Amino acid sequence: MNNKTTRFLRGSLIGIVLLCVCVFTAFSLHMSGQSAQAINQVGTLYMSRMSQQTSSHFESIIILQMNQLRSLADTIPSAAVHDDPELQKELIAGGKARDFSYLGFCGSDGSIRMLYGAPVTVTDPEPFLESLENDQQKVAIGVNAMEEKVVLLGMPSPLPRRGGS
Asked: Is the Cβ–Cβ distance between 122 and 98 less than 8 Å?
């Protein structure tokens, strides 16, 4: 009888240990999957919010730069700015004071006459010119002389155009 009881206790103990190992293994696997899913959700949420923040920041900077460009255009209220070197010097000084890297006039044919900075060209000129023709501001991508991409801000001139430029 002592032998049967010992075997029963030993068998029960082994059964309980195996049951505990199985339960803890299943629990660990489940928690590992839940942790991975939670980390993915947190990562997705974080990246989404960071993307929104970056977009908002970029938009704010573009709006600020457009306002500075409008202010610069409004400082020289004369159509002679296209031909008068003194007025162009004032425009250049205003552009440099606003930390613009490039400043120029864009003709209706898409050519850009630079006042300062390396020559730039608009990567896709049709929508850029169309917006300017419709008196709309436009942000576009262009390339400079070293084939580096640059952000171009286009603002319709408040001055009358001379000779189609």
From this structure: no
Q: How many degrees, rounded to 5, is the angle at CA 59 between CA 58 and CA 62?
A: 85
* Cα separation, 51 vs 115, whole angstroms: 36
65 exposure class (CB count in 10 Å sphere: 0-12, 13-18, 19+)? middle
Specify the 3-state DSSP secondary structure of 139.
strand
- Each residue's pLDDT tens digit, 19-56: 999 999 999 988 888 888 899 999 999 999 999 999 99
Number of H helices, E strands in the chain: 3, 5
Q: What is the pLDDT of residue 77?
A: 74
Q: CA-CA distance, 148 to 120, in Å (whole number)?
A: 9
pLDDT digits (tens, 9 = 90+) for 74-93: 887 767 787 888 888 998 99
Please report the DSSP string for 20-65 in residue order. Answer: HHHHHHHHHHHHHHHHHHHHHHHHHHHHHHHHHHHHHHHHHHHHHH
